[in-house]
Amino acid sequence: MRITCVHQGYELYGSDRSFIETVRVIRETWPEASIDVILPRHGPIVAPLELLATRILVEPLWILRRRDLPRLATLGLLTLPVAVGRAVVRMARSDLVYVNTSVVADYLVAARFFRRRCVVHIHEIPEGFVRTVLRALTRWSGCGIIFNSRATQRAFAPNPARAGRVVYNGIADPGRPKGMAYRGDRPLRLLMLGRISRIKGQDAMVEAMGSLPAAIRDRIALRIVGSAFEDAERERALADAITEAELDRSIERLPFTPDPSEHFRWADIAVVPSRLPESLGRVAIEAMAYGIPPVVSEIGGLPEVVEDGVTGWLVPPGDSAALAQRLTALVTDPARWAGFPAAARQRYCAIFAEEASAAGMVACFREVLDGRRVGAPKDQASGTLPKQPSR
Fold first, then answer.
1. Which segments constitute the Glycosyl transferase family domain (predicted)?
2. Per-residue pLDDT at 319
């Protein structure tokens, strides 16, 4: 059996690690299959994929990124037929084609001719015109659809006859959870992990920290871990904002790391103050796997991850005042959330462990291989739905 897996990235951020995990599931399910992985360029993702793939091929992909739209809509159109032709040839030779994310336009166009052997895994919530384009392209492709959250499913609003299936991303168990380690006798350790971008809300976090009275701010140690995607100016702007707010002693900035485990082991609380919709929120799930309760924005798929007031906390997106208020409560009253680490770990085990995700993904792949459409009216292979956030 020949399987082709297509990914738009080359680093080791959340979507990249999710792709690796899916390829691992495919390899474990079909150990004798020939698995080709298609990437747009070499990068850190290659090393872990070399252990799983038969071949790793670097090819030009027609990726719909916001910043590239002017170029793609003009001279870039000249390269689209070649890219689609390359995808058609590869699909014709494959029994199953897995396209990770809806932004790989050439493969979705080609999927129109091979709709019964292709599945697209959507884990982005685009905005405006980009959303319109990706939604239309996904529908037109006719291939099976896997969503990583109900928020993503709603954003794409597929035809009811092709509702797709929601399969939450599975996270590998990091082992024994930390448990409650903060008693108020040292600074509260906050971790913000992820790409530096307008979406992730690093600026909101800096604003919240800067607004705290000195007595509270001095009891907090924040690590911001991550780098900007080919955008050094954005990193400089963040560093300048930290300095201007006189937070250099309270905030430690560290570059991207492919293995964030040491940071999770260090942290008491994870912070995901996203300004724009996250399709799910891998960092929040990873934190819960370690027994770390997260503070997240009430936007996109994040409310599906965190049960507010039980396993973590929801705050309005972009509301630095509300975020500062939550941080103050965490610092001054640790006894109030003493049970949250255990509850966070329990929710991870029940909903987001890799076994549940693997079962759901394999069920979708088998439907494609059997010539059926992906789209059973369940959210997971087991049909288990997460408890909704309390109010």
1. 187-338
2. 96
